[in-house]
Write a structure and sequence with these properties.
By secondary structure, the chain is mainly β. The chain contains no helices and eleven strands.
């Protein structure tokens, strides 16, 4: 009914940049907070950055000053600009959003939704 589709991952050398995108689609009425999480092998999934509907942002300490999260509410899309990448940034990056969706019966409810993930690999 609603889905998040990420793009923009890949292989980059240390010090390089990547831009991730995540587009929401489906029977969307509105979207509250959107965020990016990551999970490295053997580690738990962790919050990297989030942005509220009104644009308030929050970052993991280790990415402050290097990553920038933004969103385009008209396009139901969130972005993560990643600069000065380090090998320790290597992980699968997941998009997450709290989406107000309209069901087939017409009722509106809030659904926390995850994307399928995109791999970011930073080589040293």
């Amino acid at each position: 009914q609603v889905q998040l589709v990420e793009s923009g991952g890949g292989l980059v050398q240390a010090g390089g940049s990547l831009r991730l995108s995540c587009a929401a689609s489906g029977n969307i009425v509105g979207i509250e907070t959107m965020g990016w999480y990551r999970q490295a092998p053997g580690n738990q999934r962790e919050l990297v950055a989030s942005i509220t509907r009104l644009g308030t942002t929050n970052y993991k300490d280790s990415v402050k000053g290097r990553f920038t999260i933004s969103r385009d509410n008209a396009k139901n899309t969130v972005y993560l600009q990643m600069n000065s990448l380090k090998p320790e940034d290597t992980a699968v990056y997941y998009c997450n959003a709290d989406i107000w969706r309209r069901s087939a019966s017409g009722t509106i409810g809030l659904l926390n939704t995850w994307g399928q993930g995109t791999l970011v690999t930073v080589s040293s």
